[in-house]
Amino acid sequence: MLNKTALNSVHRELGGQLTDFGGWEMPLWYPTGGVKEHLYVIEKSGVFDIGHMSVVRVRGRDTYGLLQLCLTRNIEKLAVGSCGYSVILNEEGHVVDDTIVYNMGGDDANREYILVVNAGMGSVVAEHLTKHNTFKNVTIRDDAGNFGKIDLQGPSSVSIVKKLLAKGKGSVEGLKYFKFLGDYADKNSPVRLPGDVPILLSRTGYTGEVGFEILTPPDKTLAVWNMILETGGDEVIPCGLAARDSLRAGAMLPLSHQDIGHWPFVNTPWFFALPLDKEGKLTKSFIGAGLYENSPSQYTLPFCGFDPRKVETDNAVALLDGEKIGVVPTCVIDMAIGRSGGRIYSIASPDKPEGFHARGLVCGFIRVDRPVAPGAKVTLKDARRSIEVEVVADIRPARTARINI
Amino acid sequence: MKTFEELDIRKDLSYSKTHEWAKKAGSVVCVGVDDYAQSALGDIVYVELPSVGAAVNAGAAFGSLESTKAVSDLNSPVTGKVTKVNDALADAPELVNSSPYEEGWMVEIEAEGGAEFDALLKSDAYAEYVKTLDASH
Q: ipTM value of the model?
C-alpha cells in the first residue's frame, strides 16, 4: 500500500500519471505533459506537490552542537531565518541523506532547527541523529503527518506569492536566495495565507529557477494548493515529478540515493555542502570527516549531450576512449536547452541565436574513477545504444534561482 | 494515461502486441505507434528511425521512441525494406502524441509476402488485448 499525500485526490482528478516514488503515490505528469511542465517553470511557473518529503525538528540547548557533528555544513554562520544545503554522512563518509537545514531561532534553551529530508528518510535521519546524540538537551522529532509541502517555482512565483500572502507580504520583498520566513507549526507565524493559514515560506527549490518551498499545516495543504492555482491563473500549472527531475538535473542538483548515496561523498559538484575554507581545509570536525584525509579516486561529473537520446541508468556505463570508467546515476532530458555554434543555450538565454528552437539535450551525472576535464567527450553505453556526451562545467544556462526579487 | 474508454483504436488498422499499428496498401505497409503507446509513454521528444533502404525484420526493433521518462523500441510488424521515412518527426516528434495515426506515422515498408501482416491483430482483437492491460493498471 502506497503512502498518499494530502493532494492525492487532486492528482487523480487532474488525470495525473501516478507512480510509486519512494513508497509514495505521486504524479509523474499531468495531461499537459512533462515537456510543457518543464518549460512552464522556466517561462512562467509550476506548482508541485512535495508532500512526500520528510521534516525532522531538532530543538533544545544542544541542538547546535549535535547538528555541527551530524551535518557536513558548518552552521556557525547560518543566521536565524537562513537555510542551507548539507549532507548527512555516516562514519565512512557515505551519504545517509541530504537536507536543507533551517535555523528557526528561539532562546538558548529552545534553539530550534528544522531539517527537510527526502521521502521516507524522516525516521532514518531522526534515528541517525539520536544514535549520535551524546548531548543532554536535545529533542529530535520526525514531524511526519504534521505538515504539507508545496513548491511554487518559476519567475511568476514571486508575484503569485506576493498576491497570495495575507500577512508578511512586505517581508517577501527583497527576500534573498536561501532565506525563509515563518513556521507552519506556529499559528502566529509572521507569514500567513488567507484564512489565517501559517506557513514556512522558503526561497529555495529544486528546479534551478526562482521560487519558493511552502510548508503548511497538513489540513490546509489542499486549500493552499487551490489558492496558488486560483491566484496564479495562466501563470501557473501543476507539475509532476518528471518535470521536477529534468529541471533539477539541468540545474545540476543531485537526487539523494541516486547521485549521492551509500558511497563516499567526494569530488562532487556539491562540494559547497562541505565546511571548506579558502584553502580547501575543513573548518570543523563532523561524522564522516575522516574520509577527507584519504579520499578515494571517485568523481561525480555533470554531462550534457548533443541531442535528446538517453541511456538507461540501471545498465549504462561511462567509457573514455573505449575504457570503462564508471556509471551513469542520472540521465534525463532538459527540454529547455539546445546547442548552437558549440554552445548550450536555454529558451531563457537572453543571447540565444535568432530562431533558436530548443529540442532538448540529454544531461545528468556520471560517477567515474578519474577526473575528466570539462569539454572532454565520454561515451555512455547501455544495452540499446551508445551516445557521445560532453563533460561540462554547467548544464542549463540563464537559470533564475539567484535573481533579486 | 488514457483509460480504455478514452482510447482511439482505429477500425481500419492492424496492430502488434507491442502497440505498433500497420496499414497495408498493395505490398507497402505504413507503420506508426497507436494511441495506447503514445498515451502510456507521455511526451515523445525524439524519434530514431532507420534510413530509406534499410532492411527490417518482423518483431525486431527498427528504431526507438524517446519520451521524457524512457526509451522504447519500435518493432517492425513485417519483414521488408524501408521505402519512406517520416522526416517531419525529426523536427516535430510531438506529432506522435498529437496525431499518432496520421501526421505521426513513421515508416513505409515494402513487405516480403503478406503472411506477417495478416497475422497482426485486427482492431477488435487488439481492443480486447488492450482491455486486459488496462485492467492490470
A: 0.90
